[in-house]
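lol so apparently i was supposed to do this last week
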Amino acid sequence: MNELVSYSQDNELAIITINNPPVNALSPGVPEGIAEGVARANADDAIKGLVLIGGGRTFIAGADIKEFGKVISGEKKEGSLLPLLTALEDSPKPVVAALHGSAFGGGLEIAMACHYRVAAKDAQVGQPEVKLGIIPGAAGTQRLPRLAGVAKAVEMCVSGAPVKAADALAAGLVDQLIEGDLLAGAQAFLREKIAANATHPRTRERNDKLGDEATNTPLFAAARESAKKTARGLTAPFAAIDAVEAATKLSFDEGVQVERKLFEQCLFSDQAKALMHVFFAEREVAKVPGLSPDAKSIEIKQAAIIGAGTMGGGIAMNFANAGVPVLLKETTQEALDRGIATITKNYSNTVKKGRLTEEAMAERLALITPTLGYDGFENADVIIEAVFENMALKKEIFAELDKRAKPGALLASNTSSLNLDEIAATTSRASSVIGLHFFSPANVMRLLEIVRGKATSDEAIASAFALGKLMKKVGVLVGNCHGFVGNRMFFQYMREGHFLVEEGASVEAVDKALTDFGMAMGILAVDDMAGIDVGVKVRQENAKHEAPGRRQPLVVDRLYEMGRYGQKTGAGWYKYDENRRATPDPAVAALIEKTAQAAGITRREIGAREIVERCVYALINEGAKILDEGYALRAGDIDIVYLNGYGFPAWRGGPMWYADTVGLKTVYDRVCEFQAQHGAWWEPAPLLKRLAETGGTFAALGKAKGD
Ligand code: 3H9
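anyway here it is w/ (S)-3-Hydroxyhexanoyl-CoA bound
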């Protein structure tokens, strides 16, 4: 046997163990090792049955995703798992797969080709391929409906969501749950089957759960209809439905061929490349080059927050959800009561939706202690300031925290744009000061920008990442520039949206072009949601950081003066009904016409393509500046910011990945055209120019730096 798969014998049973840490992916050598073990056991008369089990923390997490990259680039041919699956299923001696941790993708496909499956209670099974832009490629779409039924197979292959062991048992995917030692339990199970002298079931021969046309036709139609909403823009979920449908209409072998064709179409698509990039970028983001390996994160047992507004309240919920007691401070009883009432309402809504029990809600609320003073702050391991954006106030608070916080406590500001170093300078411990920029609603949004100041220590950074993980957020380390990474880019994106309507595109056309591109919402709808008043104030603040004399948007200021602040006032770029449903407002169209005319702007027809280019290239150009100036570590980090905080479509990989897909020369040339047409806002990023001229990509840049 090879070093990735070991073979041992316990009396009449062969035990094949996969040892490919960290997740037992099916890297080259693993399928071969298993096949060798199966052949050896079948050649040995002393062996009556086989157990297939994972060493370490999991069964098999699936195909090795890194290898897909090589297949896509043509560096190597894909090694098919199908011969191994046939060898397992045709084994004359029964094979049981013993599952713990994750049996995902190719891991579940292997398990389904075994005659039996037993699972530890904490095991999870799943076909998460769609999350990578592909579908199961080793007969998963054919065996899964045979074991778990068509509806369950569709649900699993389309959502990619994991299924817990108990649910897998109920669905018929596993045969028994094992309490205690998994290997011993699997052996006992197998000995029973051998003793019963039963014929051992082959999944591919089972047709009893495949339903009939009368039940399947509406099921597939409903699945496609629902995927149009839940998987907007994605192709793999639809391919997965097609493949499962083939299982119900064709023989097993024909179904496998259909699956293979669809799998290959997906594998070589831009979506798969983008989603695989996202998979690795999400993991790379927590790796900070140059951070001392000795930097340990502090233990977070008690937290404190200053400010019980929307942000502070949401952050407090994050701590409570993670089981960490938190003090929530306000200056007046009314503000405190309002903050607690909002938190309670948010939790109640989750309870109403059935996603939280009354008891869990009570437990979480009990972890949040409202307070008007600083008592107890001396015990906090982390203190987060979440008051409104006012430098003087923030400085006052940090000076106070410096006096009260225990040594080593993490002192964080939730500022979305103020200078962190200026805040840190009011303390005697700037090394403990960090920015934690949460995104609204803070208890929902996954993104956490971790802002590193000049003096921020490695320990503080490690602690901030640990805190992000505790709160189930994706932390991205960014530098201390105005707007940090996300908002600095967003300012440019929003500006183009505002300009486009003044130049002739309708409000609806701008938003539709962007949602058709895949954005979760159009930019003007976002403006209405975030508050036009908020946007205008931010722009006024930004003006202090900009070269003077640049074109400024006009209509948005008129909306602000009219009190049309967006959703909250029932009117902004759109009109809103009492359920906050938007409809176009002819009054806004007229206002735009009038304002543009008065400003001497010649209005013209603007197509969807230009709308997308103006908005998205503005993001890319600013992203390139940020990267070049060192405020983001890698292009992939910027992508992760945009996917998790701004509704950029994951299947386009994020703005920087998307730029690489378009080609940086194409993007650069267009940016230059926009500069010629619209002036200084479009000054090309020097990095974009350099890469365009040398045929480089943002993705390769990270690698060249050795990050
Ligand atoms: C498939 O199977 C297709 C089939 O139909 C076959 C067709 C022929 N490959 O997430 P973590 C790495 S498609 C390579 O931080 P956790 C990961 O990059 C596949 N590497 O741990 C990281 O590396 P590093 C279907 C992988 O405990 C390290 O392992 N399967 C793979 O939070 C730890 O990962 C999936 O899509 C992989 N498959 O979560 C499963 N998986 O330390 C994808 C992980 O260098 N994986 N790595 O940064 C997962 O969902 C999670 O990793 C898992 C563990 C839940 C398993």
